[in-house]
């Protein structure tokens, strides 16, 4: 496989300001337990501004805010500043240390990156920017290591507030990790972390920063009082601005809107940094590559060493190559992970990190990809970014395969939700040696540009599943018969369900007359599955038991799937008590067990036969 490039040049989108050419470099700070994934954005010209370390939030906020914070970094780079983005230990694509007290671990990683930047850029101003709990961690770090500036965007002022919100989310979802663990939306907090977070109170903190900016909503009384406290007791210049856009970054990733006013406010405030007496040129970041990293993803009994290399494919598409420390070879199988929805390459609930590192433990290589317009990969010219179903995904995958010289290598495609659809498409249309596709909770098997997510058949199937469950609830019958429930939405759902059923039957009748090329997806799901089988590609279907995609599959191609199962060309795993993104630990564990029992032995057999 061709080596990933360490960096790519790009031109940030300018507004009324000067537009510069910038470079984005991907690398690793430290190794073993200390390994951090770091992305460095800098102007190609000698920077006139400051060095900014961007501290992300944690949990589900980390995934949803990722795009907005990347745009913030690009905006500041346009103004001549240099940005350092990173993942904390035990989050994102960084290492998995054994430390149980996560906040101390995360603050320590900020301090290590501060030391690195100071050593690389001596004499230049340095500041911290944090969003949500990332702002809390940035403030804690500033109390230990003085900085020139600190920006706290919607900070969590009291950690107990975050623990209460997380517990409410867990209770509303009727889920739990068991024991002393707290789990919500895939974020699992051990007892030590809960205690450490609960003890945080920024009002008792004195940040060591010359200038401080706090941004938050008009009704955020805690943040306003924090600004007043720091002005009175902190001995630093504190500005406070209202911005209502935090909520735009905290919805599901595909629904996020860019916080343009917040980004503009930060750029304006950061545009007058302290002048450096001896400005340094925009030299390389000093980050390492292909260094050993400690991995202990959830479900692992013991830690092990792997190598992850982040980079760009011919200066464009972003990917992370995960491999065992002993290395692999171009004849060995390679697993490709495809974006789930609009999440970047870590996957929902860090699922892709867990799966790829478990594969590396079993001596199997993988590549976590960002498709165009997602994560760190730019959208195609003239195409909107952040689309879960970007245009021509098979062409984008083919470009990756060709540029990395993977046509002759045995490949496995894995994806969840939209990533499952792209793997399904790739099994039919890619010119490569595809051996298996693993489709996790696909919501559609047919997509055309211009379709809207809310109009997809899966929405109607999901709504119908909900009504079916409600039929078994006597209390809902009482409310319906007493007139407390409006019957018209139910009637509309029944009519839509009948229309879908007729449509599915019509498609099945037309299957025999369809004559589409063998390397193109068919409007008929049954014919598409037949093409996959004829190509010799193994099909693994993984569904949460109540997921709408399962109902679509059974209705449109149930007999075809059953026949493929009898012939051994398809298999299905049903995960009970699971939601669409497998946000519960027990659900993810069932998937991991299947990986261990079915997929890994198959790849080992393929590896032995090839090598």
What would you note in describing this structure?
- This protein has 611 residues and is α/β, with parallel strands linked by helices.
- The protein folds into three domains: 199 residues, Rossmann fold; 41 residues, no CATH class; 251 residues, Rossmann fold.
- It has 17 helices and 20 strands.
- The strands form three sheets. It has a nine-stranded mixed sheet with strand order 1-2-3-5-4-6-7-10-11, with helices on both faces. The protein has a nine-stranded mixed sheet with strand order 12-13-14-16-15-17-18-19-20, with helices on both faces. It has a two-stranded antiparallel sheet with strand order 8-9.
- Helix 2 packs parallel to helix 8, helix 9 runs parallel beside helix 17 and helix 15 packs parallel to helix 16.
- It is globular.
- The model has no long low-confidence stretch (mean pLDDT 87).
Write the SSE topology.
Blueprint: E1 7-10, E2 22-29, E3 36-43, E4 51-55, H1 60-64, H2 66-78, E5 82-86, H3 102-120, E6 126-131, H4 133-144, E7 147-153, H5 159-172, E8 182-184, E9 187-189, H6 191-198, E10 209-216, H7 221-233, E11 237-242, H8 260-270, E12 292-295, E13 304-313, E14 317-324, E15 334-338, H9 351-361, E16 365-369, H10 393-403, E17 411-416, H11 418-429, E18 434-440, H12 457-471, H13 474-481, H14 488-510, H15 525-534, E19 538-544, H16 548-567, E20 570-575, H17 585-610
Parallel strand pairs: 4-5, 4-6, 6-7, 7-10, 10-11, 15-16, 15-17, 17-18, 18-19, 19-20
Antiparallel strand pairs: 1-2, 2-3, 3-5, 8-9, 12-13, 13-14, 14-16
Helix pairs in contact: 2-8, 3-4, 5-6, 9-17, 12-14, 12-16, 15-16
